[in-house]
Request: fold
Amino acid sequence: MDPDVALKRIAYLLEAQRAETYKVRAFRRAAATVDEVDPDVLAQRATSGRLTDLPGVGDTTARVIAEALAGETPAYLLQLETEAVPSLSGRAAELRRLLRGDCHSHSDWSDGGSPIAEMAEAAAALGHEYLALTDHSPRLTVAHGLDPERLVRQLEVVETLNAELAPFRILTGIEVDILEDGSLDQDPELLGRLDIVVASVHSKLKMDPAPMTRRMVAAIESPHTDILGHCTGRILVGRGRAESRFDHAEVFDACVRTGTAVEINSRPERLDPPDPLLRAATSAGCMVSIDTDAHAPGQLEWLGNGCVKAADAEVPAERIVNTWPMAQLLAWTSGHGAA
Reply:
């Protein structure tokens, strides 16, 4: 195994396990250094015990490099592989095989940790046909959301990358904030140019149920909204965050009426919607989209979490939009609109 391959794989597995960002960056930084060093020089430094003299290489990454150069699979990599994402079985495994892509992901253009190309390459390596790039909208300043000018520049970058990555495709998109009055936090003309729009509530999550319901329904009724993202906004780790309160029957009825999908957010700290609400959305006849909301390449592995939830809620496969052929998916996003 090449040392840079081992280092990048470790970083990927750490991302999948929600490791601290500094750990992931340490391995990616060391991999970048190894890529730039002459292999003979690298081997000499390993022999003389001077790998840590290289920029970005510490004791742990040096040990990984030395073991890889010695023809061994690094011990730390073996450990992480044994702790990798659990395998799926039954209907969850069947649903995972049917998924053709992921409709919610972030890059370093907003609050993600990796360049667009790295996210796309990781998705393609998983066998995906596409990855929707849905960086945040401008209102979410803490996430460095994209104003119209930056979004236009991103569209140009994606066009260039798609020419290089074909037949894999990066779908243009955004995770747009649902503002307090239910309007969407981006220029409507730009929203109309995107392949996929995920609309999510990120502020005033403790609103009373009646105004929160009106807010969400208004966003769902926008002709630009394709997917309702992490609908309750709950957080399950750390100090946590309680679910937003709203009339789920009214919200899910609006989704059915407008042809808007309800997202199953697969992030381990979200797993949103909660199981009772997902069963209610299924009973109402909603379409769903199983997404990772990935902010790093390794997090693209989290689709399995959503498949388990979909299987438990008995969501019909034909109502999961990212099981559809890409042409059907894009026909839906460009034409479903509000009734």
About this structure: Strands lie at 101-102, 130-133, 169-177, 196-200, 227-228, 261-265, 288-291. The chain has two domains: 3-81, 90-335. The radius of gyration is 21 Å.
